[in-house]
């Protein structure tokens, strides 16, 4: 504890007393929480998560324009447990689904927050709560006092993760192990932003045990709604690429939710909604860019058939001997790509390969082959590849491909008639979408050979 003479005299005795009381309370709570997990009473206490304690006294003065700021940004607490005392002014809110709910002050009551590390150790049996404090709209100041319980500084290089007793084949580990020092460093070198750190330490689907992933193994061409594989051209390429891919059909009829791995089920459903809306806006802008009606590209049904792939590129011991993804251009009309910060994506410009640097929060939009053809070369699909991952951390990317509806695949596609004239003749011949797809998936990935195949 800080030296008593260092603590402001006006609250010195109160701080010392509150330290004793909250420590005793937290010991009792940790015992009950251990028993609630079916563990020995002192299991959580052994993690040293009661030993490092920090008290903060928050003072929220009256704010003349409370709608323009906040008292405390949305976040979940670090460590294991938080004991919070608040006054009667109010302003604390917790997130429940997409809604923010007021936490009404109850005279004489304390608020106990499960914090991130306890959520992780409990393997999601307990959940940390995302919360915020509104700016104080009342004339009186708002005051709250929180005590945070963390691991002892001497134990911060030890590994933390789900308790082994809570992990089984029926309930696999949700999180990977980490040192407490790594957790604390990441927490205090980023903006407060919801529950991003629990998400950061989650085991991705590709990091799940082999027996969990085994049920999803299969070739994508066999028509399953969800499949896990390596090369899409495995039986045609000269070698397997250094990656694994989880593929999920999103539309026109999405794979059944229960078929999608539980660890990413909700995220896949949400990403489907968001990327579909984005692609509709992009298709409208791209139509206008060609001088056509806003809905022209949408009428081709090229938004209806959607497939998501989650690429996982593990660290490669000899990255100069292989690739993560062979040179190719995308099928269909449009691709929405999200990549992490590892890097490795390259595009071909002339005879050179250029790195596509990751920009935090940005998406990559690829024009695909069929849109190049329909635009009569006004838009160009991009030839790209992914290098084998030379870094110790895995590289992850998520792509959503937009293709024509299965019901429209016997219709003819080619340059839009509105874009063809004597001055600008058609560059491509017409073809059925089914012919294009058949050719794409019965050859090795090899640059932009299909756009060249359909050229007049």
TrEMBL record:
Superkingdom field: Eukaryota
Fetch the Pfam families from UniProt.
Answer: 2OG-FeII_Oxy
Which PROSITE patterns does the entry mention?
Answer: FE2OG_OXY
An MF annotation (GO) of this entry: oxidoreductase activity
Please list the coiled coil stretches.
none
Sorted UniProt keywords:
Iron, Metal-binding, Oxidoreductase
Q: Tell me where in this chain the Fe2OG dioxygenase domain is found.
A: 45-152, 298-405
Checking PANTHER family in the record gives: OXOGLUTARATE/IRON-DEPENDENT DIOXYGENASE
The record's family statement is: Belongs to the iron/ascorbate-dependent oxidoreductase family.
Q: What is this protein called?
A: Fe2OG dioxygenase domain-containing protein
Q: Which organism is it from?
A: Rubroshorea leprosula
């Amino acid at each position: 504890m800080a030296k008593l003479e260092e603590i402001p005299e006006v609250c010195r005795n109160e701080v010392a007393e509150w330290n004793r009381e909250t420590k005793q309370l937290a010991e009792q709570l940790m015992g009950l929480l251990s028993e609630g997990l079916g563990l020995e009473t002192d299991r959580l206490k052994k993690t040293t998560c009661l030993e490092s304690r920090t008290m903060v006294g928050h003072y929220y003065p009256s704010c003349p324009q409370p709608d323009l700021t906040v008292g405390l940004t949305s976040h979940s607490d670090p460590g294991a447990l938080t004991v919070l005392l608040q006054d009667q002014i109010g302003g604390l809110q917790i997130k429940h689904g997409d809604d923010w709910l007021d936490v009404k002050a109850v005279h004489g009551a304390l608020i106990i927050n499960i914090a991130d590390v306890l959520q992780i150790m409990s393997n999601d049996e307990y959940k940390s709560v995302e919360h915020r404090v509104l700016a104080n709209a009342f004339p009186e100041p708002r005051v709250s006092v929180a005590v945070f319980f963390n691991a002892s500084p001497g134990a911060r290089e030890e590994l933390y993760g789900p308790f082994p007793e809570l992990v089984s084949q029926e309930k696999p580990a949700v999180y990977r192990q980490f040192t407490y020092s790594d957790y604390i460093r990441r927490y205090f070198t980023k903006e407060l932003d919801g529950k991003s750190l629990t998400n950061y330490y989650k085991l991705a689907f590709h990091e799940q045990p082999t027996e969990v992933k085994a049920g999803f193994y299969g070739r994508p061409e066999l028509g399953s709604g969800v499949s896990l594989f390596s090369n899409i051209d495995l039986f045609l390429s000269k070698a397997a690429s250094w990656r694994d891919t989880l593929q999920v059909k999103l539309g026109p009829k999405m794979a059944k939710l229960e078929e999608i791995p539980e660890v990413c089920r909700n995220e896949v459903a949400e990403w489907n909604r968001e990327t579909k809306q984005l692609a509709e806006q992009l298709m409208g802008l791209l139509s206008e860019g060609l001088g056509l009606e806003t809905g022209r590209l949408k009428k081709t049904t090229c938004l209806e058939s959607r497939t998501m792939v989650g690429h996982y590129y593990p660290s490669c011991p000899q990255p100069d001997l292989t690739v993560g993804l062979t040179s190719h251009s995308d099928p269909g009309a449009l691709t929405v790509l999200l990549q992490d910060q590892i890097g490795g994506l390259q595009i071909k410009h002339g005879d050179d390969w250029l790195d596509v640097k990751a920009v935090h929060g940005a998406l990559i939009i690829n024009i695909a082959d069929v849109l190049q053809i329909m635009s009569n070369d006004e838009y160009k699909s991009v030839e790209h590849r992914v290098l084998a991952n030379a870094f110790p951390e895995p590289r992850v990317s998520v792509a959503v491909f937009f293709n024509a509806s299965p019901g429209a695949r016997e219709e003819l596609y080619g340059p839009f008639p509105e874009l063809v004239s004597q001055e600008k003749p058609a560059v491509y011949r017409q073809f059925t979408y089914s012919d294009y797809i058949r050719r794409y998936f019965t050859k090795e990935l090899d640059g932009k050979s299909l756009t060249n195949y359909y050229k007049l």
